[in-house]
Amino acid sequence: MASELVFRTCPITGKKVYAVTQNLIWINAVTAVVFILVGGIMAFLVGMTRWPAVHLLPADLFYRFLTAHGLNMLIFWIIFFEIAGLYFGSSVLLNSRLAAPKVAWLAYILMLVGAVLVDIMVFTGKADVMFSSYVPLQADPKYYLGIILFAVGALIGCGIFFGTLAIAKAEKTYEGSVPLVTFGLAAAAIIAVFTLACGAIIYIPTFLWSLGLITNLDPGVYRLIFWGMGHSSQQINVTAMVSIWYLLGALTVGAKPVNEKICRSAFFLYILFINLASEHHLLTDPTLSPYHKMVNTSYFMYLAVLASMIHALAIPMMVEVAQRKKGFTKGLFEWLTKAPWGEPGFPAMIFSLFIFGFIGGITGVVYGTEQLSIKSHNTWAMTGHFHATVVGGTTLAFMGLTYYVIPLIFRRELIGKKLAVVQPYIFGIGIILIALGMGGAGTLGSPRRHWDITFAQSVIPFSFDPAVIFFTTIAAIGVLTAVTGGAMYVGVSVLSVFFGRKMAANEAKLL
Amino acid sequence: MPITSPEKYWWKPADKEEKIWISIALLWCLVLTIMMPLMHLIGTQNPSVNPMKIRPQDYRTVSEAFIEKYKVGEEQGIPVVEPPDGADVYLRAQMWTWTPILKLKKGVNYKFHISSVDLMHGFSLMPLVMNFQVVPGHDNILNMTPTSAGTFHIICNEFCGIGHHTMVGKIIVS
Ligand SMILES: [Cu+2]
């Protein structure tokens, strides 16, 4: 037991960092980076196939690698990183020992076994079903089993987070309320429990169906509950990402929330309303009644949007206040121009906020209306929308944070600081090009999940407006740019974690 | 700091700037909230027919009967069908064709029944870019009136197996 109580005091933040917590954050974060590497290679191959000028892969490999890209990025990379974030947000930020570290290791092993099983099934061609695996398209039972194991592991990880909150409160390791970042992560974890419950409701029967034990599985109901998981997991990402924006604001310019009440209320709105928005995936489906669609697209959705609008003010506002306090008071924008643009965390935060809000958020609200869903459903514009939210938003925020986690938690000096500084710019520009290219081509009708947009093998000939090829080329340039940025991220973080200079116990240098 | 506990009493009134912003955002959200049902009532392009369930084998039977009844020819092995004005039109998705090729008249309202007899498919009418999910076991019922003449194509935009990218159908409006 005693080894569970070994801790050091962080020379920068003064927080207690328990050794077991540190190890668990390390293993989950490093595993996340391995999966972004796999997903990134897939991104390159898939992106270069969508581009008719290159058309790299044959059709079977394209669909297989597209399936792998979705799972490795959207599920494995992001959720492993989030679990690391939950342990950080509870144990480190609250100065508390972690609840049941051995169970946390079990959670990690379940997630890893699940993820590896899924990847083996996908790469051996036994699960060419896309991320969504819509029934009656069927994969090998081991594919569904892998997803279930991963989800159970992630659910246990959330339990460890809540357990740690309870321990910290009981042992009075902090005074008053929990910090805002912990509050935001708690909102993310609550949404995660709902999400994983939907995952269990849909994947367990699907697993039994793939084994032949159940014969009737309604594809319409599958879509409804699948998106209860599939979309809600993006809401976990949104909530975790916003928490990280607050964290990066603190780490880069020492910003503090202007009004805790406003920020916390906005997180509370996410918990209440964001999951109800999941049904916008079904606006053109033949399963929900018009009345149901109307209710779902109206106030349920917009109360979650309101929460995002509140954060969109609160974060730049706290940065401005912090900068003005430092004396950058000239004109309207000196606070912004004199911001630490040469430090990776700041541009990562700003790009993430900009891409998420202005590209991902606006397209999301537009496509989520009943009538415009008809114009955008299943087109490449949808792919553009969620690359702006999940990649430009969540992933970029996580990348920015990594450069601080390495010295703070892993006590290693960054290798390639110059690369780390330009990385968010390159990655951000790449994602902007991807989102705009996909959005343009998709608005003209270019479909998602499609191997050949020239329709060369069709019995009935069809060709797109040539502008589709132009926009596809923009997206392809974006893919090359973003993949370069992604490779820089993987390179800097892996090299630093394994070969970076070990920092002395009292060394208070961040970057 | 957002990484430390806030001061004891953090439930404070918002500043003027915050209040203005939140009011504008809330107002905008309310406008959108009202617009959704309103557009549904006054708009003309809504996915607004109550959907029905239909077993894939039953759908195959009715769509075959529809083709049999109104077939006027064949194009590359795909039946060409010209339904009478105002008829119920059955457009069947299956790996990897849209059956049949339809000949419709401009300005005439048709009641479309779109469903699949195997996997999920995506109905995407080009070049208008109008998209609907096609779900086996469910009948996506749409009232459609062609407003311009010409040749329209239907591509599939939901992954439906290895031949997904070859799945193209046709509607000719005269
Ligand atoms: Cu299809």
Structure description:
The complex is a heterodimer of chains A (about 500) and B (about 170). Chain A is mostly helical. Chain A contains 14 helices and two strands, in the order ββαααααααααααααα. Chain A has three domains: about 1-175, no CATH class; about 180-200 and about 215-340, no CATH class; about 350-510, no CATH class. Chain A has helices spanning about 20-50, 60-90, 100-125, 140-170, 180-210, 220-255, 260-275, 290-325, 335, 345-365, 370-375, 380-410, 415-445, 465-500, and strands at about 5-10, 15-20. In chain A, a hairpin with a 6-residue loop joins β1 (about 5-10) and β2 (about 15-20). In chain A, α1 runs parallel beside α3. Chain A is globular and about 70 Å long. Chain A starts with 6 loop residues before the first strand and ends in a 12-residue tail after the last helix. In chain A, about 60% of the residues are buried. The mean pLDDT of chain A is about 90. Helix content of chain B is about 25%, strand content about 35%. Chain B has two helices and twelve strands, in the order αβαβββββββββββ. Classes of the chains: A mainly alpha (about 500), B alpha+beta (about 170). Copper (II) ion (CU) binds near residues 93 and 96 of chain B.
